[in-house]
């Protein structure tokens, strides 16, 4: 018996260690509150087309679900490219993102194995990490030769794409940004003047308080929950005018007093409205048509521009709402938002860099960017593309467009994902009053700087 | 056949035996290759990686014992994940033991339809862990879940936030683990069937009541099975992952109260691509499992009774 069990123990351990490999295959996508454009399906669809003779065939790896609006729009651009190019034929290959990340493990292993595709659609946020890991092709010279420059893009997008050693590693594509949605009916019911929405955070807190609604002891509507939807520490950190990274010292400064103040404001909602009540209340939040802002469970929400197309127009076309930039503290705050989004890259080790470049620069040119963004309700990162009047047809979408020039990027660091995860956990500890904002952010700062050392030698 | 073989020259016999060995090895080759490629090689390379910085994208860089040092000196989450895992093991194991043995005793009674009951208690084991997680998310939902609804209806108690409340989250997953006790029950049942009837008869003749019979006959006789279930349960608890991952989508919410060791290991490996760090964690887990299994074995001399000896 003794022998059988130690062997079993050993095998189970072996399974845990090698499980590292096995687990890859079966992870659901991260529901960060934003509808992702990737399928959790681990299937792979390769739409290989017979290449006309004499044409160089290259691959484009993309995470959009085949047959989705995103994939169709990209495919159309790709077909245009194939039609106009005499030398190159591009194949679109579906490679879903995996686990809690916005990246594809297939791409990771292909680059590590030295057999990457010649172009790929890539989360701009992780560009600096992959560049620091020597896994992307430096595009600086190619961009210079093609006359592509920083001024063509909104600052946040260029900042991310050139976030490692000041070289260009990706061509920015679409983006998104964030602001506050207010339910007009709820505001009016609470006696608030919707034509005069709050500008500063203290007024905003009064609005929130006025819209908290109870039925006996039961919470029916929450005026506002700072950590719901897109309410990350980044969101309020920027609004409070905090700095997450000190360029000069090359140090993470997540415990900047302004960021601590922003987190104290978040925690004030936990204390005032009782975190257990809010936790329990938000467990009933659904998705899509049952989404809390549409259901009236949230009177105000901090969310992304995509909500207009993916929720409001689809599930509640008659609902009246307004959009305002996040109100800021009178002393030392500012109008702010942050923007994320995607880009196109040429992985390191690509065999046909020039062909890859020809394709990704075509894909991200002014017209194609407009085309994709209009068709799929995204926001372009090119200043010229953003001028298209269709992005302003919806007046609330225009609010998001107006915020683009001042939008921040999350600090483009090789430890970007680490910092994101650490801050998300810090937020959870802070709003559950497990740690004070100072304690939680000191810890994040310490760990992040420790992590930075690996890239600083 | 044998006579024919022995009549052959010795040289040929040797090659025949050699040929058998070669053939045998060839037939076993898929398994041997699998073992070497997918177990032996990863196990030893993970030991090496645990002393490196390794992101997959670049070749591993030697880092000495830094990963291990960081784990113990500069990683609160690591300590928290150990605490959570031990907490889970400390309550889930004994509760599972008492609960499992109790059910097995009930299912061992000679009543009508006992096989139906046995099936019912085993059924939850057949539910995949992912479905289990999602199912209990709904059961425990404080607003829409059946549990709080019944608590209110029957007892007029406002139920807690269960999985959304840091204080209740771990007890909640322990309750979930008790629901899946059927696997252990089947093994206990097998053990119970092996308890000789004459021991019960003798105890009865001596005037032992039902409780005394369980206490002094049944329990001692099934201690080998209890030991087995404890060790399997302990290793399972150390590696607790799937249900908690599904419930929290991997981030251990609320307030890291459900960040278990294996989940933190996974996060390091597949979210942050710190394979070296994750490998160090895996080896520490391995050591912990070996040491605690060994300790259980050593202690078993004092409490496990093997009928034949």
Structural description of this entry:
The complex is a heterodimer of chains A (457) and B (309). Chain A has 457 residues and is an alpha+beta fold. Helices cover 44% and strands 13% of the residues of chain A. In chain A, the strands form four sheets. Chain A has a six-stranded mixed β-sheet, with helices on both faces. Chain A is globular, with a radius of gyration of 23 Å. The longest helix of chain A has 21 residues, at 2-22. Chain A folds into two domains: 56-176 and 339-400, 3-Layer(aba) Sandwich (D-Maltodextrin-Binding Protein, domain 2); 178-337 and 415-456, D-Maltodextrin-Binding Protein, domain 2 (3-Layer(aba) Sandwich), CATH 3.40.190. Chain B is mainly α and 309 residues long. Chain B has two domains: 2-39; 74-303, Orthogonal Bundle (MetI-like fold). In chain B, 73% of the residues lie in helices and 1% in strands. Chain B has 14 helices and two strands; from the N terminus they run H-H-E-E-H-H-H-H-H-H-H-H-H-H-H-H. Chain B has helices at residues 2-7, 10-49, 66-73, 76-107, 114-122, 129-139, 146-155, 166-179, 182-193, 197-205, 210-238, 242-248, 261-270, 275-303, and strands spanning 52-53, 61-62. In chain B, strands 1-2 form a two-stranded antiparallel sheet. In chain B, strand 1 and strand 2 (61-62) form a beta hairpin. In chain B, helix 13 (261-270) runs antiparallel to helix 14. The two termini of chain B are 43 Å apart. The model of chain B has no long low-confidence stretch (mean pLDDT 91). Chains A and B meet through helix 1, helix 3, helix 11, helix 18 and helix 19 of A and helix 2, helix 11, helix 13 and helix 14 of B.
């Amino acid at each position: 018996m003794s022998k059988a069990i130690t062997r079993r123990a050993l095998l189970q351990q072996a399974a845990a260690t090698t499980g590292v490999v096995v687990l890859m295959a079966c992870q659901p996508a991260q529901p960060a509150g934003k509808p992702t454009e990737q399928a959790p399906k681990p299937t792979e669809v390769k739409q290989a087309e017979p290449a006309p003779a004499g044409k160089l065939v290259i691959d484009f790896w993309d995470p959009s679900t085949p047959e989705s609006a995103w994939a169709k729009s990209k495919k159309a651009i790709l077909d245009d490219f194939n039609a106009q190019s005499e030398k190159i034929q591009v194949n679109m290959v579906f490679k879903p993102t995996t686990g809690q990340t916005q990246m594809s493990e297939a791409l990771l292993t292909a680059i590590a194995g030295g057999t990457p595709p010649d172009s790929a659609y890539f989360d701009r946020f992780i560009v600096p990490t992959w560049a620091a890991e020597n896994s992307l092709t430096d595009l600086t010279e190619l961009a210079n030769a093609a006359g592509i420059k920083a001024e063509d893009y909104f600052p946040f997008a260029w900042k991310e794409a050139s976030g490692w050693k000041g070289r260009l590693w990706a061509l920015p594509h679409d983006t998104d940004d964030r602001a506050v949605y207010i339910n007009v009916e709820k505001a009016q019911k609470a006696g608030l003047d919707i034509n005069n929405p709050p500008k500063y955070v203290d007024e905003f807190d009064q609005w929130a308080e006025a819209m908290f609604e109870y039925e006996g002891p039961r919470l029916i509507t929450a005026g506002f929950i700072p950590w719901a939807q897109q309410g990350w520490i980044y969101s309020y950190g920027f609004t409070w005018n905090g700095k997450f990274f000190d360029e000069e010292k090359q140090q993470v400064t997540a415990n900047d007093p302004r960021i601590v103040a922003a987190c104290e404001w978040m925690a004030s909602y936990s204390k005032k409205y009782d975190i257990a009540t809010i936790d329990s209340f938000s467990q009933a939040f659904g998705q899509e048509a049952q989404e809390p802002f549409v259901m009236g469970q949230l009177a105000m929400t901090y969310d992304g521009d995509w909500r207009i197309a993916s929720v409001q127009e689809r599930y509640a076309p008659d609902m009246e709402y307004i959009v305002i930039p996040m109100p800021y503290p009178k002393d030392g705050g500012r109008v702010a938002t942050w923007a994320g989004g995607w880009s196109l890259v040429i992985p390191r080790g690509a065999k046909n860099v020039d062909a890859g470049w020809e394709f990704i620069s075509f894909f991200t040119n002014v017209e194609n960017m407009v085309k994709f963004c209009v068709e799929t309700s995204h926001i372009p990162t090119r200043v010229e593309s953003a001028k298209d009047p269709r992005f302003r047809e919806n007046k609330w979408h225009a609010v998001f467009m107006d915020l683009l020039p001042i939008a921040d990027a999350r600090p483009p660091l090789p430890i970007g994902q680490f910092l994101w995860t650490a801050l998300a956990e810090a937020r959870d500890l802070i709003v559950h009053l497990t740690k004070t904002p100072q304690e939680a952010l000191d810890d994040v700062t310490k760990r992040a700087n420790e992590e930075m050392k690996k890239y600083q030698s | 056949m044998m006579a024919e073989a022995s009549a052959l020259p010795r040289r040929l016999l040797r090659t025949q035996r050699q040929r058998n060995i070669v053939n045998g090895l060839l037939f076993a080759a898929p398994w041997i290759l699998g073992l070497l490629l997918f177990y032996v090689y990863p196990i030893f390379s993970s030991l090496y990686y645990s002393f490196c910085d390794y992101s997959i994208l670049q070749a591993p860089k030697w880092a000495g014992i830094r990963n291990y040092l960081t784990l113990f000196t500069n990683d609160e989450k690591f300590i928290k994940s150990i605490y959570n895992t031990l907490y889970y093991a400390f309550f889930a194991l004994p509760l599972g033991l008492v609960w499992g043995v109790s059910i097995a005793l009930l299912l061992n009674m000679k009543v009508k339809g006992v096989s139906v009951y046995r099936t019912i208690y085993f059924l939850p084991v057949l539910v995949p862990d992912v479905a289990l997680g999602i199912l209990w998310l709904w059961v425990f939902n404080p607003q829409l879940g059946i549990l709080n609804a019944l608590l209110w209806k029957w007892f007029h108690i406002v139920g807690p936030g269960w999985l959304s409340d840091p204080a209740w989250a771990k007890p909640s997953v322990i309750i979930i683990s008790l629901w899946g006790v059927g696997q252990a029950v089947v093994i206990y049942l097998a053990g119970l069937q092996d308890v000789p009837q004459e021991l019960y008869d003798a105890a009865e003749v001596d005037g032992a009541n039902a409780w005394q019979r369980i206490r002094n006959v049944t329990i001692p006789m099934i201690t080998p099975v209890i030991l087995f279930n404890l060790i399997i349960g302990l290793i399972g608890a150390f590696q607790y992952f799937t249900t908690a991952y599904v419930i929290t989508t991997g981030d251990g919410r609320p307030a890291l109260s459900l960040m278990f060791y294996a989940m933190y290991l996974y996060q390091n490996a597949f979210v942050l691509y710190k394979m070296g760090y994750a490998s160090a964690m895996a080896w520490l887990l391995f050591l912990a499992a070996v040491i605690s299994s060994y300790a259980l074995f050593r202690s078993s001399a004092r409490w496990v009774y093997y009928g034949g000896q």
